Each structure stands twice: as C-alpha cells, then as structure tokens.
Amino acid sequence: MRELSFEDAKIIELNILRHIDDFCNKNNLKYFLAYGTLIGAVRHKGFIPWDDDIDITLPREDYNWLIENFNKINDGGRYKLVSPYSKGAKHPYVKIIDTFTVKIEAGVNYHNDYLGVDVDVFPMDGQPESKQEFDRWFNRLMRIYKLHAYCLMETNGSLKRKIFVPIIRMLTGGHVRLAKKVDKLHKKYTISKSNYVGVTSCLFVNRGDRFRKECISGCKYVSFEGYEFPIPIGYDEILTNIYGDYMKLPPEEKRVTHHANKMYIKDNVEIY
C-alpha cells in the first residue's frame, strides 16, 4: 500500500459522494450536504481548503432504507456501507467507504479489520417540541453515545483505558446493543410529526443542530468541486444555528484539519 496525500484523499471522497448522489437519485432518496461540506459548498464552492472529509445527511426513513439496500445493490462494487449495527462498525453512524483504501484513525479499535477512506452519513430525526423536553432527550442520547464511544476505543495505551473499556463493553453488551438502544429514543420523534428536526446521532453534534422542519422541505443544487449537489433550502438557518457566522473565515491559526488520520490506497489501484 502507499500513503495518500491530503489532496488525493479528497479526490477519493468526492468520487464516493458522486456514487452516493447517483445511488440516491436512482432510488428516490433524499439527502443533503451537511456540516463542513455544506459550509464548503456555500462559501468555497468545494471543500473548505483545510478540511479533509465529506458529510451528508438523510431523513431517518431514507437513511434506514440506505442501510438495508446499499450493499445489496452494490454487491461486489468498490464502495461499501458500514452500518453502526455491524460488528465491524467503528462509529455510531453510517460510513460509506472505498474498499480499495485503508483509513486509520487515532484511538479507534481495528480488531475487526480496517475501514477505508469514507463519506460520513448522518440520520436526521424529529425532535421534541419544547426546549426543556429536548434538553432531557438530548442529554440521555449523549450519555448512551458516550458509552458507545468507549466500546469502540482501542484498549492499548493508558492503564485506565485497558481496565475500563472491557468493563464497559461487558456491562453494556457492546456497541451493537447500544446502537439499537439509542434507536428507540430516536423513534419517539418522527420527522412527519415534529416541527423541529436535526442530527443527534453522535457525540460530535451540539444542541444547535435543531431547526424548523421547513428548512428541509426542499433543496437547491450548488456547485461543489465542479459538480452539482443538493443542499437544504433552509441552509442559512441550519448553519447559523450550528456555527453562528459561518461565512466568516476563522483565524489563520485555526485553519487546520481537525482529524488525525493515516490513509492508504492498495497496490495496483487507480485513485481517479
């Protein structure tokens, strides 16, 4: 294998996104660019120059259909969906990976094999109406996701991690059981019956990921690295709720990637 450059990895991620876009269009699935990818599309018409990943989101119903059918339809293809319910999962949300590559993230337990360069796929759910009820629901979700993260940690390293990670896995039943447990909390609030929606499917989200359902009632297409992809019509409200003044560039010293990954491509495989 040979190590991928920052720019080569972004090309591979863009190719995965193009494949997802084609798959969603053919199967009538609704999806949007999300998070830093959405900012990049709006502010830079492509990747944020110092960013190195792609995020998308789908309504829960479409997200579940994707989990059920992506690998069946793409059987034997270059791209594979890794579900949070699979034994090989490393995250509480879907990853669609390039199987011709290898991606190693710091602190992640890879005893069930490595994953590849990927696109992050997040489910969008309905949310409680009142802020007080939302806070209670959100806090409960985050407690479970924290346990989920411990279950997936590498046990090498500190003595504390070597002792407590196996204990947490034993007491909780492992990451698959926790993923199913947290799904029950998400099912309490469907998008169709909620006025507020957002992504609450991992520890990295914040309380600002909460916006009016009207924000995702339609989409517009914008340029991202020379291709057209969908963003929600209420993208300004969504990004403002999460990031504040998202059009303002951060200080130069903060324009660095927030990931510590090593990425490789297998021998005799083309990047492009």
Quick tags:
single chain; alpha+beta; 7-stranded mixed beta sheet; 3-stranded antiparallel beta sheet
CA-based gyration radius: 18 Å
N-C termini distance: 16 Å
Give the strand tally. 12
| Structure classification | alpha+beta
**What is the strand content?**
15-25%
- Work out the helicity level: 25-40%
Shape label? globular
* Secondary-structure element series: EHEHEHEEEEHHHEEEEHE
State the major sheet. 7 strands, mixed
User: Averaging pLDDT over every residue, what do you get?
Assistant: 92
Number of helices: 7
Question: What does this protein look like?
Answer:
With 272 residues, this protein is α+β, with helices and mostly antiparallel strands. Helices cover 37% and strands 20% of the residues. The protein has seven helices and twelve strands. The protein has helices at residues 6-26, 35-43, 60-73, 131-151, 159-172, 175-186, 235-243; strands spanning 2-3, 32-33, 55-59, 79-82, 94-98, 101-105, 118-127, 196-198, 211-212, 219-224, 227-232, 261-265. Strands 2, 3, 4, 5, 7, 8 and 9 form a seven-stranded mixed sheet that branches. Strands 1-12-6 form a three-stranded antiparallel sheet, with no helix packed on it. Strand 10 and strand 11 (227-232) form a beta hairpin. Helix 4 (131-151) packs antiparallel against helix 6 (175-186). The protein is globular, with a radius of gyration of 18 Å. The two termini are 16 Å apart.
